[in-house]
Design goal:
InterPro entries: 6-PGluconate_DH-like_C_sf (IPR008927), 6PGD_dom2 (IPR013328), KARI (IPR013023), KARI_C (IPR000506), KARI_N (IPR013116), NAD(P)-bd_dom_sf (IPR036291). The protein is α/β, with parallel strands linked by helices. It folds into 2 domains: 224 residues, NAD(P)-binding Rossmann-like Domain (Rossmann fold, 3-Layer(aba) Sandwich), CATH 3.40.50.720; 246 residues, N-(1-d-carboxylethyl)-l-norvaline Dehydrogenase, domain 2, CATH 1.10.1040.10. Helix content is 54%, strand content 11%. It is built from 21 helices and 11 strands. Helix 13 packs parallel to helix 16. 54% of the residues are buried.
């Protein structure tokens, strides 16, 4: 596995860029990626040629992070970053607290900011974007580029027969992590060049041939360590499926079911929490992040490997079945419609919270014990988690997703962004505080995974592992893809403050 500098000066036939690209070897071929870093910031004015104002519409987790990163990266240039909010938005005071103000023209009404911007980045909630995109489109200035960090709007337009407005570039830059991670790792990048959250980018419409350059500039300005190309449709499918599976929904099902299993085996509540939730978000995630997926098994003793093998082999097929079902329902619009219907049903009413189930009461004591012990990888928990992660990897590969997208959406986003936050708080906290789209998906599919583990996987884990399933894991091409991606990883872990 190698990465090499590419002399290619474009991201596509019509997308020149001022940045130097690299070729990354992946299973079955190569992909072109951009390695980021603060040394590239001086190139941003050239890369953003024709852009004098970037409008960030929305102040949710991504809007809050991206607006600040863009502003800080473009400090000292003649490019302004402005935040647009809906009238009466409760977020206005927080935006002001972070330096965006009406007085200097960097905070204003969302439609006014849209009308005055050359690049309009739409980061309002998915359901709000589905409901109001036509108002935004009508206010775009001629030739302005539409920016997205999620393909949800594309799915909605296809579902309703709509389309993006002609004459406007449509690009996406999609950080592979939550908004807080995007900002926190960017701040760490002030000390360690290249620290940040990886991003994918897509060029959906390019009427003037500069959309690819704008997308790469946007990603560099966010602090992405590396940026890989995808399509808006592929990003939408992998992102929505991933957050319902290994990134959130399946993790919830895994830890709830394992906690109950370990309690039935006689563990006290804190020990059961440590073997389930604490193990996934702590030692298992760290091992994968630093040493790869295969290392979780290889670093166990022979007895532990046997336990891992039985759990992995029992998990893989049932998890794959659910992930394939999720993928089908995302692809045919069912999942999108469920989100829109839920938004109509709920309105502004808060959703009920999942963090009241018995296991979460043990979390605080488990976190307090960290200083006094080094928690080992639990082999059964590791087998279940790794079996589910590999099932998602294989589903994405079979559906034709590029390897950069597969490893980022299935592995890197989990172990380098989401699981560290879950470790600092807990999985329930994450489910109860993520975007409504992700939260709805996790609450719908998490219990499906939980039931499959309890009813199918755990009874089957008593039998010897199928050697063919284990051989497929140990020789899996994902290990090659992760090794290539690891060469672009900054030497820093995300710093997550305790709440």
């Amino acid at each position: 596995m190698t990465t090499s500098t590419s002399t290619t000066a474009s991201t596509s036939a019509t997308a020149p860029t001022v940045f130097t690209l690299e070729t990354m070897d992946v299973p079955g071929g190569t992909e072109t990626v951009l390695r980021g870093g603060r040394h590239l910031f001086p190139l941003l004015p050239r890369a953003f040629a024709g852009v004098r104002r970037i409008g960030v519409i929305g102040w949710g987790p991504q809007g809050r992070a991206q607006a600040r990163n863009l502003r800080d990266s473009l400090a000292g240039t003649d490019i302004t970053v402005a935040v647009g909010l809906r009238p009466g938005s409760a977020s206005a005071s927080d935006a002001r607290a972070h330096g965006f103000t009406e007085e200097d023209g960097t905070l204003g009404d969302w439609l006014d900011v849209t009308a005055g911007s050359d690049l309009v980045i739409l980061l309002i909630a998915d359901a709000a974007l589905a409901a109001h995109h036509q108002e935004i489109f009508a206010r775009l200035r001629p030739g302005a580029t539409i920016g997205l960090s999620h393909g949800f709007l594309l799915g909605h337009l296809r579902e309703t027969g709509g389309r993006f407005p002609a004459g406007h570039g449509v690009i996406a830059v999609c950080p592979k992590g939550m908004g807080d991670s995007v900002r926190r790792l960017y701040e760490q990048g002030a000390e360690i060049n290249g620290a940040g959250i990886n991003s994918s980018y897509a060029v959906h419409a390019d009427p003037d041939g500069r959309a690819g350059s704008l997308a790469l500039a946007w990603s560099v300005a966010l602090g992405s360590p590396y940026t890989f190309r995808t399509t808006l449709e592929s990003e939408y499918l992998s992102d929505i499926v991933g957050e319902r599976a290994i990134l959130l929904g399946a993790v919830h099902g895994i830890v709830e079911s394992l906690y109950a299993r370990y309690r039935l085996e006689g563990d006290d509540p804190v020990t059961a929490y440590e073997r389930s939730c604490e193990n996934v978000t702590g030692p298992i995630a760290r091992t994968i992040s630093h040493s790869g997926l295969r290392a979780v098994r290889e670093e166990l003793d022979p007895a532990g490997r046997d336990v891992f093998d039985r759990a992995y082999a029992a998990t893989y097929a049932p998890a794959r079945e659910i992930i394939a079902e999720i993928y089908d329902e995302v692809a045919d619009g069912t999942e999108l419609r469920s989100v829109i219907l839920a938004e109509r049903r709920l309105g502004t009413r808060p959703m009920s919270r999942i963090g009241a189930s018995p296991m979460w009461a043990a979390g605080a004591e488990a976190r307090a014990r960290r200083a006094d012990r080094t928690l080992p990888v639990d082999p059964f928990t590791a087998g279940v988690f790794t079996g589910t992660m590999t099932a998602q990897i294989d589903e994405f590969a079979e559906r034709g997703h590029p390897w950069s997208e597969i490893v980022n959406e299935s592995v890197i986003e989990a172990v380098d962004s989401l699981l560290p936050y879950m470790h600092a708080r807990d999985v329930a906290y994450m489910v109860d505080n993520c975007s409504r789209t992700a939260r709805l998906g996790a609450r719908r599919w998490g219990p499906r995974f939980q039931a499959a583990y309890e009813q199918i996987v755990y009874p089957a884990a008593g039998a010897p592992a199928d050697p063919a399933v284990l051989d497929a894991f140990t020789t899996h091409p994902v290990h090659e893809a992760l090794a290539a991606a690891a060469k672009l990883r900054p030497p820093v872990d995300i710093s997550v403050a305790q709440p």
